[in-house]
Amino acid sequence: MTAGTAGWLPLSAGERSVAIEVLVHGPLSRTELARRLGLSPGSLTRLTKPLIESNLLIEAAEAEAPAEARQGRPSQPLDVVADSGSFLGFKITEDTVYCVVTTLRSHIVARHDRPLTTHDPAEVADLLGAMTAELAAEHPRIAGIGIGVGGFVRDRAVVGESPFLLWRDVPLAELVEERTGLPVVVENDVAALVEAETWFGAGRGLDRFAVLTIGAGIGYGLVLGGKRVSCAEEDRGFGRHWIVDPSGPLTPDGRRGSAVSLLTIPNIRYQVQAATGRDRTYEEILALAAAGDPMPARVIGEAARALGTLVAQISNFVMPQRILLAGEGVGLMDVAGETVEETIRDNRHPLAAPVDLETKVSDFHDWARGAAVLAIKVLVLGSAEA
C-alpha cells in the first residue's frame, strides 16, 4: 500500500524488519543492523536499497550514530527520514476530539482539539474531516490517519461497539476516508497506546510488558516477545468481571467488588455522592482524601487497594518486566501510592522481585499519538501483527 503522498512502496517481510529496527532503534550502522537481524552484508544491501530509494531510509551523517555503532571501519549509519511524511492521530472521547500531528518517528509537532457536540457517526466523521483539512493546510505531507476509540473495533475499520459513544457497527474508517481521501486505521484506544509505548515508550526493548489504564474505564494490554497480544475479546469490559473484593461496593457500572466498581472515575464519584449527597469531581475527591476527609479517604483507599491487587495479579501471572500505569485516573498514585505499593507486596511472594511499576502522567494527546503510531505501523510498514 502506498501511504498518502509520501510515495512509500509495499514492503516485503525482510524490508519491514529492517525498517522497524531502524525506526525504533536507529540510527544504526549497517554492521550493527546486520548483527541485530542476523543478515549477511549482501542480504542487508538488497533489503535496504529500495528503502533508501523510496526515501523511507537515509544514510545519515556518521556523527549522528551511537558510539558503539561507529567502532571499526567508518560507515554511514542508516536512519529513517522522520519528516518525509506526517500522520494524524485522533482520540475520540465522549465530549472532545483530540488530535496530534506526528513525524514518522511519532514526535508530536502539532496539537488540535475540538469539542464533540454530537455522537452521530456521520457528523463525527464530518468533524474529523474538517480538522484534517485545517491541519493539511499547515502540514501538506499527511500520509495517513489513525483513530483511537474506547470500545471494540473490528478489522481496524469498524467500531463494533463503543459504550462511551453509544455506537454499534459504525464503519468509521470508511466514513473518514470518504471525507479526507487518506487511508485510515481505527483501533481500540488502549491497544493503540500499547503499540506506541512498545515502540517508543516505557516498553521499548522489553520482551514482556503490560499496560494498565484507569480513568473512565479500565484498559489492559499485554506485550509478549516484544509484540502486543491481540484477542477477539479485546476491550469487552473485562474489568466488570475482574472481581477484586467480592464484598465490595455495587455500582451502576460494574459487578459487586469488580475493578470497574472500585477503581473507575465515574464509580468513585458515584460512591462519594451516594454517601455524602454531594457531587464532586475526581480531583476534588483526591484532594479531600489527602486532607483526611473520612468518606473520600475511605473510597480512595479502597480504590488504591483494588489497584494494588490488580498490579500484583498481573505480576503473578504474566511476570512482566515492567507495568505501565496510565490514564486520567493516575492521580490516585499521588494520594494513595503507599497503599497501592503495600497491597502489591501483600499479594506477592515474599521473595518475589519488586514490581517495576511506572506511572505515566499524561493527557489524551498521548492516546492520540498512539493512534498515529498505529497508522505508521499499518499504513507505512504494513505490519500485520499491529
From TrEMBL:
Query: Pfam families, from UniProt?
Result: HTH_24, ROK
Q: What is the top-level taxon of the source organism?
A: Bacteria
Q: What InterPro entries does the record point to?
A: ATPase_NBD, ROK, WH-like_DNA-bd_sf, WH_DNA-bd_sf
Q: Which SUPFAM superfamilies match?
A: Actin-like ATPase domain, Winged helix' DNA-binding domain
What is stated as this protein's family in its record?
Belongs to the ROK (NagC/XylR) family.
Checking PANTHER family in the record gives:
BIFUNCTIONAL UDP-N-ACETYLGLUCOSAMINE 2-EPIMERASE_N-ACETYLMANNOSAMINE KINASE, ROK (REPRESSOR, ORF, KINASE) FAMILY
For this entry, the protein name equals ROK family transcriptional regulator
- Write the lineage as a comma-separated list: Bacteria, Bacillati, Actinomycetota, Actinomycetes, Kitasatosporales
